[in-house]
Amino acid sequence: MAKKYTVAVLGCGNRGLSYTQEMCAKEDKYEIVALCDPNPAQLEKMKRVLSLQGVSEFTDPDEFLKQRRADLCIIASPDRVHVPEALRALALGYDILLEKPISDSREELEALVEAQKKYGGRIVICHVLRYAPAFVKCDELIKSGRIGKLYAIDANERVAYWHWAQAYVKGMWANMELSHPAILAKCCHDLDLLVGYADSECDTLSSIGSLDFFKKENAPAGAADRCCDCIHKDTCPYSAKRIYIDAWHEAGEPAFTWPWNKISLISPTVEENLIEGIKTHEFGRCAFKQRVDMIDHQMVQMTFKNGIHASLKMVFAATSGRRITFYGTYGEIVLDERMDEIQVLPFGEKGEVIRISDLIKGGIGHGGGDGAIVDALYGMLTGESDIRTSLAKSVECHRMGIAAEESRRMGGALVRVHQ
Ligand SMILES: NC(=O)c1ccc[n+]([C@@H]2O[C@H](COP(=O)([O-])OP(=O)(O)OC[C@H]3O[C@@H](n4cnc5c(N)ncnc54)[C@H](O)[C@@H]3O)[C@@H](O)[C@H]2O)c1
Predict the structure, then answer these.
(1) 43: enclosing H helix or E strand
(2) What pTM, to 2 d.p., does this model score?
(3) Whose CA is nearest to atom 7 of ligand 1?
(4) How many angstroms is it from 313 CA to the middle of ligand 1?
(5) Could you give the domains of the chain?
(6) pLDDT at position 363, please?
């Protein structure tokens, strides 16, 4: 019989729940045995949603990390504690599924790499898009030579306007004490994909970006501090009422899904709790009146060591969806999540369109990536397969994100990634 791995979860918020949900659906492979979150409501939510019984529970991460509680530790805590918690988990002998971003400090990245060498635990970084079928398909098409030799990539990460306002203006990712620069917090996925597609380390890059829109002076006249009290609550697209109540009704009142399960932790979701959420939760505050350490758009130009050039735009937009164009010497590929398609366009031929939704089997989180990383993790633990997002591979995009932020702060100066 195949080995079943016991799992301890450190950080039971949205991401912790996503991976444990995927693991509970593979109960012959994984068993959740311990949960830790400083917020007891998150523990209750996790137990209720997954019908977990007999698990050990902790509200103090320090206490939780005093001894090893399982074979594997999922670390899905806020950005700034990823490395300190991973270092302690490694020392306890865990294998780790670690949420991105790892860190915005070269020293912390190095400390984690060294600790892994010392203790030997395996670390898988949650760059889930490396496993999502559409992104895997593009990699296969490029490496098959279908468009000749890849020479340039144009990547666009379009974040839905309301998601940007939620996470990077009102939420913890707006605050650099809790989070990392947006180019890492949001786009380390994109930088990581570019490394994989280019199949090379990045040599130099430059970046520009700024916070232009989410400022007090751009608030609609007479805007209140909280959306529920605001005269613009039915018209402003950033209004929490429109995002968390009207859109929930329009979506058919889903039982307990993101983003509504962020504002009310009680399952199933009901309107009364959403109304309470917009009155009390940080996401119910005016998008224009927050302290925001972040930019609201950023662009990066890169040269890889093998000569491939790439650009990345991170913008807020009408709906979410990445669009990446791959330029080859004998053709072009366009991946467009919004259009649900991959266009394969060899020069001088008719070309074909592949539907992304036809490629996704099973779990849909991150285009199937959340389920696929949990499968790949099992393959790595059993030694049956290699992993695409080992610590060694995932450090590169973090070095690029750190360099991009340095360049942006220097007004777009050219920065060497490996210093
Ligand atoms: N892989 C992805 O695509 C992806 C997507 C979104 C978020 N993330 C990352 O996942 C992590 C978690 O994000 P989330 O959306 O689940 O946020 P969340 O706020 O829903 O959950 C974070 C949880 O961590 C808990 N927590 C606070 N301090 C802690 C500590 N010291 N130790 C352990 N837990 C602690 C909080 O109480 C909360 O329940 C973040 O680092 C985020 O950047 C990754």
Answers:
(1) helix 40-50
(2) 0.96
(3) 15
(4) 25
(5) 5-121 (3.40.50.720), 129-214+292-416 (3.30.360.10), 216-284 (no CATH)
(6) 59
